[in-house]
Amino acid sequence: MTDKLIHAIGFDGWVSLLLCDATQAAALAARRHGANTLAAFALGRMLVMGALMSEQLKHPQESFTLSINGEGPLGGLYVDAHCGALIRGYVANPQATGGIGRGTLTVRRHKAGAEPYTCTLPLQTGEIAEDFAYYYAASVQQPSAVGLGVRADEEHGVLTAYGFLIQPFPGCPEETITKLEAFIKGLPPTSLLFTDHTPEDWLQKTLPGDHEILEHATPQLFCTCGPDAMLSALATLSNEERKEMAAQGSTQMACHYCAATYEFSPQEVLGLG
Predict the structure, then answer these.
(1) What are the tens digits of pLDDT across the range 72-93?
(2) Which end of the chain has the smaller Cβ count within 10 Å, N or C?
(3) Superfamily of domain 4-221, CATH level 4
(4) What is the spatial distance between Cα 21 and Cα 149, in angstroms, rounded to a whole number?
(5) Distance between CA 68 and CA 252 in Å, rounded?
(6) Would you say 24 and 32 are in contact if contact means Cβ atoms under 8 Å apart?
(7) Which pTM value belongs to this model?
(8) In whole angstroms, what is the distance from residue 2 CA to residue 8 CA?
């Protein structure tokens, strides 16, 4: 089934609902990085969160950089999200045997022609969905329900990667808030949310009252790496460092985000400076 992100308005126009199925993107990312089940769980959740937040970007040149840095074996999780549900990400230790532990969540929003907005907060629980809900409450004073769920096993890899971001608009009546809270409390585990349903079908069958779907997108992995980008990185090294690298033969470089590898001859490395 094709990955899908939808943005809908429900509860008499008072509530924004973002729903995401990013199973294929999360599965491909886990395979590329050789992630074990634990790392696939965490990376998949972060990628779904990136896709959800990408819908809040209003300009093609805007983007989010999301990062969780922890003291535990997993180390860190890093995701870039661009308009149109374009996402990329990696986990610091794809073979970790333990979680994030204590650490921080950083959200950086990039806007064309402006300094990035950056917010760094201590992790509250280590549950990614709960920590992003806290980010919305603490940083932008926006009450939010966040659900992120991934099913995976060692044999099949990622089986599902689902998520939602539900936010009432300012001025939402208390009666509607009460109905919304009851609706959220009655949801199944997020990792099972869209099993046998598209997000649209699920919304049609589950959401009380009328709703309007505003936008559709397809979450997709992307990357900005390439030979030129890697050579630009090598060019930042000193002449002495490049000479030492060239003396050892071909230089190999790998992209953190997509795991693509690039090889450069000694002549290419020396020709940079």
Answers:
(1) 999 999 999 999 999 999 999 9
(2) N
(3) Hsp33 domain (3.55.30.10)
(4) 10
(5) 28
(6) no
(7) 0.93
(8) 19
- Domain boundary assignment for the chain: 4-221, 227-270
Closest alpha carbon to 51 in 256, 251, 220, 237 = 220
Residues in the chain: 273
Closest-CA residue to 148 (of 203, 189, 196, 199): 189
How crowded is the C-beta side of 272, counted as CA atoms within 13 Å?
25
**Amino acid making up residue 268:** E
CATH class of the structural domain 227-270? alpha beta
Residues in contact with 111: Cβ distance below 8 Å, sequence separation at least 6, in sequence order: 59, 61, 62, 117
Q: Distance between CA 122 and CA 134 in Å, rounded?
A: 10
Q: Is the pLDDT of residue 272 over 90?
A: no
Q: From CA 148, how far away is CA 189, in angstroms rounded? A: 9
Dist CA 49 CA 128 (whole Å): 9
Give the Cα separation of 135 and 155 in Å (integer). 35
Label the pairing between strands 117-122 and 103-110: antiparallel
Beta-strand ranges (E) seen in the chain are 4-10, 15-21, 63-70, 76-82, 86-91, 103-110, 117-122, 145-153, 157-168, 212-217, 220-221, 251-254, 261-264
Tokens 């779904």, residue located: 48
Contact between 25 and 87 (Cβ < 8 Å): yes
How do residues 191-201 score in pLDDT, each as one tens digit?
999 988 899 99
